[in-house]
Design goal:
The chain has 186 residues and is an alpha+beta fold. The protein has one domain (2-184). Helix content is 51%, strand content 16%. It contains four helices and six strands, in the order βαβββββααα. The strands form two sheets. It has a four-stranded mixed beta sheet with strand order 1-4-5-2.
Length: 186
């Protein structure tokens, strides 16, 4: 999992020119996949080089991302995406492995929705743009830490999908939590 806070001004001044240079040089990238309800990951989404020495059957890279814009107030866009170029799955991986990896993506979506909910509350109750900006960044860091802890606990409790009854409990719990946060889906 990777976590980012985007600063729009920094993006415009430093990152955008560098990205354009890479494009001009012929660099190719694999498009990131935004989380979408009823569009689960497939093996074709995993485009990263397979770690043949790994004892694991797959690796999923999801990112909780926030883009904060401070102009006449503060707005924040929270996204959750899967990075195909940094994710891999062995050809003989089962559908259960794929479902386990999807749940990592879904857990990240829970925290994206929780963060959107928190930001809405902050925007409603904070009128000072500088304070709001700091509070949103603080909330992002808090939710990112919580998400990382939960992702680790998920792998531990399911032994990376091997403990079938725990995998089922996690799947059911995550589904219920997502439904409870439907109001905050993108």
């Amino acid at each position: 999992m990777h976590l980012y806070i985007q600063n729009v001004n920094l993006f415009k001044k430093l990152i955008l020119p560098f990205a354009l240079l890479l494009l001009l040089m012929g660099a190719t990238t694999v498009a990131k996949v935004l989380w979408q309800e009823n569009k689960p990951l497939t093996k074709q989404h995993f485009k990263g080089p397979v770690d043949t020495k790994s004892k694991f059957m797959s690796n999923t890279n999801t990112t909780l991302n926030i883009r904060i814009v401070k102009q006449k107030g503060v707005t924040a866009e929270v996204t959750n995406y899967f990075d195909p170029a940094k994710s891999w799955i062995k050809p003989n991986a089962s559908n259960e492995i794929l479902k386990h990896e999807q749940l990592h993506f879904d857990i990240t979506e829970i925290y994206a929705r929780e963060l959107r909910k928190r930001i809405k509350h902050l925007q409603k109750n904070t009128s000072d743009a500088d304070v709001l900006n700091m509070e949103i960044k603080s909330a992002f860091k808090q939710y990112a830490r919580l998400m990382e802890k939960e992702q680790t606990r998920y792998d531990s409790e399911t032994n990376h999908s091997i403990i079938v009854d725990m995998q089922k409990k996690w799947s059911d719990s995550v589904a219920i939590r997502l439904i409870g946060l439907n109001e905050f889906k993108k």
